[in-house]
Design a protein that fits this description.
With 169 residues, this protein is mostly helical. It is built from six helices and no strands. Helices cover 53% and strands 0% of the residues. The longest helix has 35 residues. The protein starts with 7 loop residues before the first helix and ends with a helix. The relative contact order is 0.07. The mean pLDDT is 77.
Length: 169
């Protein structure tokens, strides 16, 4: 493919349309090209000139199928001929469709298998679990009280020793 109007942006848009049937916006292409180094842009141009679709796809992210209209997405209506595709294009399109699907996360419960009480006949909830910080504060408070008691005992012993040293009883 030849460079369109001396512009890599126009060339990327034309390449995506021609080989993948995808219409890209100028701003989207510019956002992808901006962070690329000059050598990466040159490599992209070489890939497009050699019609290397795989190399093109490693450098440019095409829009997902939801972003395209019915005609652009290649959806076939009754009576319309199916466009010819090759295996690489089919794999690419299937991967984009798979990536666009929302993932399902199963909770593992069956219908009606709630583990918690519901409705007005709920039992009283269990008391909240003791708070780890509250337990730590309580342990610290007990330690402070023990240290204060030990300090008082030591001060009394020092006072007695001073009395003995001076000879007073």
């Amino acid at each position: 493919m030849e460079v369109e109007h001396g512009s890599i942006v126009d060339t990327v848009i034309k390449f995506a349309k021609q080989f993948f049937g995808v219409t890209m916006e100028v701003d989207d292409v510019r956002k992808q090209l901006m962070p690329m180094k000059f050598s990466e842009q040159q490599s992209l141009m070489s890939a497009m000139q050699e019609d290397d679709k795989d190399d093109f796809l490693t450098k440019i992210k095409l829009p997902s199928p939801e972003e395209k209209s019915v005609e652009e997405a290649g959806i076939v209506r009754p009576g319309m001929p199916t466009p010819p595709t090759d295996a690489r294009t089919n794999r690419f399109m299937n991967k984009q469709v798979d990536d666009a699907r929302p993932t399902r996360v199963s909770s593992g419960n069956v219908a009606g298998g709630n583990k918690t009480a519901t409705g007005n006949n709920q039992k009283t909830p269990p008391p909240p679990a003791p708070d780890a910080q509250g337990q730590q504060r309580q342990a610290n408070s007990q330690g402070i009280q023990q240290n204060a008691q030990s300090l008082d005992d030591l001060q009394q012993q020092v006072a007695r020793l001073q009395q003995l040293a001076t000879g007073k009883r």
